[in-house]
Every structure is written in C-alpha cells, then in structure tokens.
Amino acid sequence: DISFDDNSGNHITTEQLGVAMAEIKKTIGRNIDIYGSDACLMQMVEVAGEMKGDVNYFVGSQETEPGEGWPYLTFLKKWTAKPTMSASDVSVLLSKEYLASYTGGIYGTRSVTFSAWDMSQLDGVYMAVTQLGQSLMNINNTQLAEVKQTVQSTQSFTYSDYVDLGDFTKRLKTAAVGKSVSGLAETETAIKKLVLTTDNSNSFKDSTGISIWLPTYSSSDQERYDELKFSKTTRWNEVTRLISK
Question: What angle do CA 143, 149, 151 make, to 5 degrees?
C-alpha cells in the first residue's frame, strides 16, 4: 500500500491504485502515459498487475527510497530541455537521474534502486511466470527445500519476502532443482523485454528491476494476495503457499 497519512491513518491500497488508474483512463479516454511512485518498495509485478491495461510505462524503486525522494530539479530540467520526449524516454530519464542523484549527485551517496518498465510487455512476464509456477508445483520435497534455500539467497529488499524475480530465476537455473523446472529461460527473456532500464547502486548489483512476493514462512497476507489480479491470472499464490509451508 502507499501514501500513508500519519495523522488520519488513511492510505491507498494496492487494489485502490488499480481502481484509480482505471477511472483516470476512463476520464481521459486513453491509457495513462506513465505511472510512477515516489515511494518505497513499489516496483513489484503485483502492483503493476493492478493497473495492467491502463498504464503504458511503470517506474519506481524496488527498495525503500531515501527521504529526499526523486531528484525533481535535475530530472525536470532535462525534461524541460526536451519537452517532446516520448513517455518511454521520460521514464528512462527519470530512472537514470534518480541513480545519479544518489551516486555523488545532489543527494550525496546512498544505496538505491530504480527501474522503468514497458507495460505492453507485461503479458510476456505473466505467461512465463505462469509456466514457472506450474512447474514449481510439481517438485518433490527435496527439491522444495532447495527452492527455499534459493529464495533465501536471492536479492531481497527491506522486506525479505520482496525478492528480485530475475535474480531468483538466475539462481534457480544454476541449482540442481533448476534442471527439473521449466519457465526459467522464458522468465528471464520476458523480464529483459519488460524492463527498459534498471539503475541500481553497487549494493544491489543483482537486482533486475522487478520484484515479486515470495515468502518462505506463513504470512497473514496470503488470503489478500489470493485476490490480486496478478495472483489470479498466474496462480502464483499457489507457489507462495507451497514455499511458505
């Protein structure tokens, strides 16, 4: 969820974000060019899934953001200098400027992540993850233990159950169980098509720009997760239930 109000306690849920994007699309009569979150931990396939079909480009951070947030000054100066840039170019520019601002730039040096997606490629990720998930559901208990170990060694973020999807598939390919799992190469290919740019500090060198929920422990969020659009389409919730046993 996003936009927590410390005074009222109100916030916008992931599901409500999707409702809002659909309503905005209906009002303006076309897709929203870019959806971006100047907020923490938002660059997840599940978040994007709620606004699939309503947004063309999706930008944000896999990790928590420093308090300074986006580098509006440098980003808007460069956009103003080229006001006819495409939505794709603006998305990439923001990602590059975000990293630059925290690698000796206007906000000093901090560990950050940022990426930009072409949402027209999200269907490919859905198809690949569906294949991967179906394959994982057929592994035996010994293989399941190895998958859990792989998850635990995968690049994660402030919340350990927010893992990098690309790094997970890469590590799973080199594990013994990887020989018995299909959809790994397809997922890697789909991510490369989806992610226009991923701009990370050295401490997040294994991040590929896209996170997915993958808890290795029982979570009270599971029932809510079952109802997310990404979960319903790909049945990834079956994998999260399996891994979290």
Answer: 105
- 195-233 residue pLDDT tens: 999 999 999 999 999 999 999 999 999 999 999 999 999
Can you count the helices (H) and strands (E) in the chain?
A: 11, 8
* 180-196 residue pLDDT tens: 999 999 999 999 999 99
Beta strands in the chain (DSSP E): 32-36, 55-60, 103-105, 108-109, 115-118, 162-164, 195-198, 211-213
Residue 83's Cα: distance from chain center in Å?
28
What lies within 8 Å, CB to CB, of 53 at 6+ separation is: 31
Residue 45 · residue 127 · CB < 8 Å? no
Phi, psi of 91 (to 5 degrees): -60, -45
Query: Tokens 């290795």 appear where?
Result: 216
Q: Are 120 and 193 contacting, i.e. CB atoms less than 8 angstroms apart?
A: no
pTM over 0.85: yes
